[in-house]
User: Fold DNA ligase from Lysobacter enzymogenes.
Amino acid sequence: MTPNNTADQAAQRAAELRAQLEDANYRYYVLDDPTLADADYDRLLRELEALEAAHPALASADSPTQRVGSVPSGQFAQVRHAVPMLSLGNAFSDEEVADFVRRIEERLDRESPEFSVEPKLDGLAISLRYEHGAFVQGATRGDGATGEDVTANLRTVKAIPMKLRGGDWPALLEVRGEVYMPLAAFKAYNEKAIAEGGKVLANPRNGAAGSLRQLDPRVTAQRPLAFYAYAVGVVAEDYALPASHSATLKRLREWGFPVSAESGVVAGTDGLLGYYRQMGAKRDSLPFDIDGVVYKLDDYAGQREMGFVSRAPRWAIAHKFPAQEQTTVLEGIDIQIGRTGAATPVARLKPVQVAGVVVTNATLHNADQIARLDVRIGDTVIVRRAGDVIPEVARVVPEYRAPDAPQWRMPERCPVCGSEILREEDGVVWRCSGGLTCAAQRKQAVGHFASRRAMDIEGLGDRYIEDLSDLGYVQSVADLYKLELDDLLEMKRRADERDGTTPETVKAGKVATKWAENLIEAIDRSRDTTLERFLFALGIQHVGESTAKALSAWLGDLALIRRLPWPVFKRLPDVGGEVARALGHFFDQPGNQQVIDDLLARGVRAGEAHPPSAKLRDGLNLATLLVDMEIPKVTKIRADQLAAAFGDAQKLLDAPEHAYVTAGLPAESAQALASWLSVDENAQLLTRVGEALARLDALTPAASAAPAAGGPLDGKTAVLTGGLDAMSRDEAKERLEKLGAKVSGSVSKKTGFVVAGSDAGSKLAKAQELGVEVWDEAKLLAFLAEHE
Assistant:
């Protein structure tokens, strides 16, 4: 193959790739009918980039590879619009629209003229210049007469064609339209920016405008911009456009320009107002922001006859929707507790009308959002509302802030029940820790408590939980165990009256009490349960069935578990700091302890107690717990030195700072420890750790005699897949766990064995791929028979 042939083949392949990529853009942005997967698009683009790099002569300004952005320009040149980009007059009422139509009817002497109608996108108006079908220049609207040359940035917008399709286009064509940012893309961009610690965009319109005015086109290329064409400016003199605006839009679409699918043609005032109301109803479901609709007399002859007034055409008008953003004053920040205990800050606002509705409250999402916005009580803020979406505080107007306005902080206590509000580790969510006593969480707590894997109260569904809570029969889960038959029947009668439904408690002249009797029996049966089910039923944050089983197996006694400080829980296998703290904080709440007392007093029995595991006790000492308490600068080596020098927690707590140095700590570590212990909460925690060690020491003889937790499968991870004939998967899981196994839902290199029943699928294939041991049901049954 000669070099010339190689170059010719490269040129031919480059042309094929450009055609494929431009066709993919056309189908995606214009036809809304993509046929090329994103991965395939990227593969073709990379191939074209490689070809152009190997053959620089093939590179051209209209190549799809140029959409990634070129080097910064340093400044924008001015562009004088050959035909001014005029603004439109605004209408805010039906009467103003009727007057607009009446003036046209009178001037043109015709009834009910036809109008081209389209949504008014909230983006940035631009003009695009094409010569011989190729994109050569793009400019912003600017002041209408002069704009800025943003050609390099516009090349990065995939919805804008670099070459026109077909062949019947004019030699010179100027197309006008709107660059905007789709709502989903705007949201995704901001979420990514937040996750990476970057700067978020204020709103889609500002995002679009700011993106096009970036001096570095490579920045613009990273922004999710789109485009809709809505008009034609300059056209070559020898080319005749269609006779109407709507027909021109159709032709623009054929040439490769996206045109809004919401565009149409209507007649007269009734047609315009009908379109306005139709778009108003669809506004919140559209994938982009609009702030109104645009009406244009459809035929060009009529437009020319109507002419212009000042800087606006007489033949077009924008009918604006009520504003979705308004300025008001933030008067306070309340905390709202959700069903799961999540604490959400809510802004209390000076009443303001936004999008036609008086708004007095707005969401602030979470504490991190407040910190990002730097919202403070008394601030002047911008409030945004879109249809039925909850209003939100979008941004602050800092120049109106009082100089002494303090920063806002999340309150320490739940406004509903007074329990601690705690931030999840490495998370943005704050939660009330009073799960069993917080009225805001009551229904969620009762539903979880009664669920099949928890206390298993058959028949207590969501409907009864709602009624029991709303009508005051159940204030906490313990109240379930004081319900009587008459309470349930009265509750049903009151619920029927409230809902205006026909009472169901009377059928064929006989009181229908069977449902209530069954429920009372189910509640009574649930009084006898296992410790692991009881612990799971309490609904402690992050404590699932697996953790509940570990607590039961390793500690063995509710009376012990409920009094332990959180660092002890951290010593359990598979219990990390976040779960340990959640356990500690739950049991630290007096309200939660009271509910547990009430449950026990009303006959709930959480299994038979057994001594703690000797294996666990052997690993518990002052040194290990000092490390688990996460004291600054107290490493394992320093903890061992402190434990050897002081022996117990109280002596360590009573010692002066210089004694820590004498024990071997560097001065910096000694100072950090003393500073940590000067906080009352930390000193109390160390005292409780000492008390817990003493309590466990008292159980040492019994613990030493007790078998260690686990069994023949101790330390092994099992995975169940497929169906079993002799038992359910849940039963198999429970029996394996009693023998010490940890049963997981996924296969990995650390999996000990996989039990494969009938119709085993991908987990079996994964096990075979990784060389993990596979048991059939017969081997499982034989193993259980031998070791249980």
